[in-house]
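[INFO] parsing input record for S-acyltransferase
[DEBUG] input buffer:
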Amino acid sequence: MMTIVDICRPSTPFPNQPMDLCFRISPCLADPARRSSSCLKLLLLVVHLIYAGVLFLFDGDLIEKTKKEPWYTALYLLLFVVTLVQYFATSVSNPGYVLDAMMEINKKNVVHTKTPETSNQPALGKNGSFVISMEGNQTGKCVAGSNATYWSKLVAELYPPASTIRTWTCTYCNVEQPPRAKHCHDCDKCVLQFDHHCVWLGNCIGQRNHCQFWWYLCEETAVCIWTGFMYISHLKAHITSVWWQDAIMILLLITLSICLIFLLLLLIFHSYLILTNQTTYELVRRRRIPYLRAVPERVHPFSKGVCRNIYNFCCSFGLERIPTPQEIEENSRPYTCLDVATCRCC
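[DEBUG] output buffer:
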């Protein structure tokens, strides 16, 4: 029997009411993964502002230099702002989801063939994903055969003839994965040319935004070097002025140096991946990827030369087929003087 106490008791405990209100205002915060990502983004923004703020608060010479040579400070602040903009732009960028590419290719094929009985409406599949079906009476999983979508046929051509559809179909979102694609468990989507899921960005790094991520690393490294140079210049000129200010700046400089080492290593590592047309996932999990197990460690099967690798990384996005054994053997052949003269490495 309901008592007066039960009637007067609030339906939601009092401590949870502010949190529930916050979740209603910002639904994205209800997801623990996105909430932690938002906190990391806020933390990174605060750290940047602290480093710049301490510099302008403690360094009186910088203020005087700004009055005499405003271009110097203007360039620094411009790089500072561009780096933050690039960070947030990369964090919300599309890494190249397999589902989006599948929908786009199937729609283009429908328009190209102009078949009136076809339908490009997506059917709801596993885990809320969509499976594109061109045939009006076909629903569910895409299968190879006469009723297969154009995407299924295209993906099948990228794999060796002996492979089956089960070897490249994602077991989580039920979508045919082209070579070099992988399902990201953090985003719950398959990503083209998956590199890694960046915790600090809260986003996957894949084919579409890897170049953007590399430029962010360059800008962040440049900001750290410039900021460290200004910190060192101030400490050399005012090391004995105010001890507590010097202590704060030395502590920040040590932390900045550690971050700079990490950024430089990360920038060099991703530059190497670009020049050899590899991804972090392929390099780290090479023995777990079926089409890379038989390839020697020193051979990069998808590399087309340094110049073409850079061009494809920056300007060209497409699906890559698995190289044939003959092509892998050709790539494994050592370079000779004639190869260097004919720019085989490029």
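[INFO] The CA atoms of residues 118 and 135 lie 5 Å apart.
[INFO] shutting down worker
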